Amino acid sequence: MLILGIDPGSTVTACGLINSLTKEIQFDYIKLKKNLKQEDKIFAVYNFVKEILSKFKPEEVAIETPFYSINVQSAMLLSEIKAASIIASKEFGLKISQYTPREIKQSICGYGAASKDQVRFVLEKTLKIDLQNVPLDVSDALAVALTHIYVGGL
Questions:
Q1: Helix (H, G, I), strand (E, B) or coil at 118
Q2: Is residue 64 among the annotated active site residues?
Q3: CATH superfamily of this structure's domain 2-152
Q4: Which residue is catalytic, options 39, 40, 51, 64?
Q5: Is 40 a catalytic residue?
Q6: Is the pLDDT of residue 152 over 90?
Q7: What's the pTM?
Q8: 7 included as an active-site residue
């Protein structure tokens, strides 16, 4: 089963795909320019996710529920970017699961307060890939997909 993990972000949104049977991996990400209007960032993420869904045809989608800090404006933008990912996925009729950062870190590293570098390290060993030259958002997206595989017993 092909699982798409999405790490929604206001500067980088990443998609990681893992085939639960073959462990084949694909990933891509979009960097959003800081000077883009909020609605343009949301639309860019929506189109990016639709493109990934069309190209790879995953069977299920898992999305990281962003961590919300004190900055209300950032929280709103992240929520809207996450919503763009959900809407694109629903247009393809896909089942969507959501996981918190703590759930993902617990699933991947066995420790809910693991660092992003620790998550990347475990993913590199588990999936036998090198993620050093890509944004941490890519390892986050792959971690979301792998969490879904683990939690769902896929």
A1: helix
A2: yes
A3: Ribonuclease H-like superfamily/Ribonuclease H (3.30.420.10)
A4: 64
A5: no
A6: no
A7: 0.94
A8: yes
